[in-house]
Design brief:
Blueprint: E1 27-37, E2 44-51, H1 52-61, H2 67-71, E3 75-82, H3 85-97, H4 100-110
Antiparallel strand pairs: 1-2, 1-3
Length: 122
């Protein structure tokens, strides 16, 4: 096993990790890890930001050139809060190494219909 088919840590083992979305304001000292897609079971993008609402808006409007604009990834399907931005960056880096099947299971655990969660941010 090369570590890509499962997380490299237990969900509760990472300091500053909250497995459920945190009711904190969208902009704080910590950070958000998030997944964007274009459709159910479509292309995935994993990102990290300190301001989730702003960043998802930028993706949805195509304001920044890059992968999400190129592939039309405008649907926020998963996100989680970390108390420290460093922990969020570590989680993003780890998740980007996962096999797609584990990323899909992570989305399905919270959002089985792959709904756009952007409205939850308001």
């Amino acid at each position: 096993m090369d570590g890509r088919d499962k997380p490299d840590h237990d969900d509760g083992a990472l300091a500053g990790f909250s497995p459920q979305p945190h009711p904190a304001p969208m902009k704080q000292k910590g950070g958000w890890v998030y997944i964007m897609t274009n459709r159910s079971n479509g292309t995935l993008y994993i990102g990290v930001t300190s301001d989730l609402g702003r960043r998802v808006h930028e993706h949805r409007e195509g304001l920044i050139a890059g992968f999400t604009r190129q592939y039309g990834l405008k649907r926020l399907v998963w996100y989680e809060w970390h108390d420290e931005i460093e922990a969020a960056i570590q989680r993003e880096t780890s998740m980007k190494r996962w096999y797609r099947a584990y990323k899909t299971r992570t989305i399905m655990a919270r959002n089985p219909d792959w709904n756009d969660l952007y409205e939850e941010l308001a």
